[in-house]
């Protein structure tokens, strides 16, 4: 298992993650990225996933490095 940790307050809304990994990431109405099925707690959004999938690409391409993928 892996966990995506998204520090949403740091997102600058560049849109790269939604292009790199659209099955998990989309842009929200407030101009920041949204992690689909993510659970928000105090500004940090988390979601557990089986496989890293394209989230590692999204994490690497995020210019402010606010997407993290860790082992659970
Ligand atoms: S790549 Fe990073 S800064 Fe850009 S929209 Fe996605 S989370 Fe926000």
Q: Characteristics of this structure?
A:
binds iron/sulfur cluster, two-stranded antiparallel ribbon, globular
Provide an overview of this structure.
This protein has 72 residues and is an alpha+beta fold. It has a single domain (2-71), classed as Alpha-Beta Plaits. It has helices at residues 16-20, 55-61, and strands at residues 2-7, 25-27, 33-35, 39-41, 44-49, 67-71. The radius of gyration is 11 Å and the shape is globular. The protein starts with a strand and ends with a strand. The model has no long low-confidence stretch (mean pLDDT 97). The protein binds iron/sulfur cluster. Iron/sulfur cluster binds next to helix 1.
Per CATH, what is the topology? Answer: Alpha-Beta Plaits
The count of strands amounts to: 6
Q: Biggest β-sheet: count, sense, barrel?
A: 4 strands, antiparallel
Oligomeric organization of the protein chains: single chain
């Amino acid at each position: 298992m892996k966990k995506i940790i998204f520090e949403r307050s740091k997102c600058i809304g560049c849109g790269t993650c939604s292009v790199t990994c659209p099955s998990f990431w989309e842009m929200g109405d407030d101009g920041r990225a949204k992690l689909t099925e993510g659970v928000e707690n105090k500004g940090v959004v988390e979601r557990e996933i089986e496989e890293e999938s394209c989230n590692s690409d999204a994490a690497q391409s995020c210019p402010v490095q606010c997407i993290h993928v860790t082992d659970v």
